[in-house]
Design goal:
Order of helices and strands: HHHHHHHHHHHH
Domain ABC transmembrane type-1: 87-271
Family: Belongs to the binding-protein-dependent transport system permease family.
Membrane topology: Multi-pass membrane protein
Oligomer: single chain
Shape: globular
Keywords: Cell membrane, Membrane, Transmembrane, Transmembrane helix, Transport
Main location: membrane
Amino acid sequence: MTDVRSADPAVAEPAPPSAGPEVGRTGPGAGLRAGAEAVLPAVGILVALAAWWLIARLELVHPAALPPPGDVLTAFVDKPAQLLEHTWDTTLEILTGFALSVAAGVLIGLSLASSRTVERMFTPLLVAVNAVPKITLGPLLVVALGWGQKPILTMVFLLCFFPIVLSTATGLTTTPADLAELVRSWNASRWQAFRKVRFPAALPQIFVGLKVAMPLAAIGAVIGEFQAGESGLGYVITQYAGVGDTATAWAAIMLVALVSILLYSALLLIERFALPWVRETTSSR
């Protein structure tokens, strides 16, 4: 008698998943990669400092223009309270001008993305404004707005807003086709499509513009302080360089660089927490 047994697919047990990729993500290799990511920026800074020390030691550049790193450190140790006070002033100007640029840039980018007529009407004007060398506007801003923070914040705004406008408009007009088709299948309103699909899909592109604009904000603040500042690191650079104390001027320059690095890193953290799906859906190097 033949024993016939029916194979029930519901009873069949699936094969256990391979644990290889998970081990690669959570094993010692992940810890080594995380450690390398933390150490490599410090190594890059040390290499730059070593090159600076070597150039100053060999006097490839005149010491009046590029003092040794030790002299710059001494200048900071001699005037810590003064330099930190001016650093705080510059940081506030960077953050305020950047916030104004973000608010205006996103709104302008939204307007360009919502209407092809508006885009064709105002894009050439925006490109022309961005093409003007901003340092040439410094004296005119002082005449129009006087001394103090107004011309400085205006300079920051003029340098920052265009990358934010461009990235916002690009992100809102390049919604993935499958997401756009999904919205149409839902019969969603324009507001629902914008809130649920278009704006979230545009956020990675918007953050690209923000990351480009953040260092430009520091540049704009320093240029504004050159022209109209009564405080800030740009003011310190012009004052001490004018009397031949280039070591203190370079200490202020290093503080500008440090502030830019910290603010850029903070923006990266905000992007990581605000857009957790980006790292999960894109390939890592």
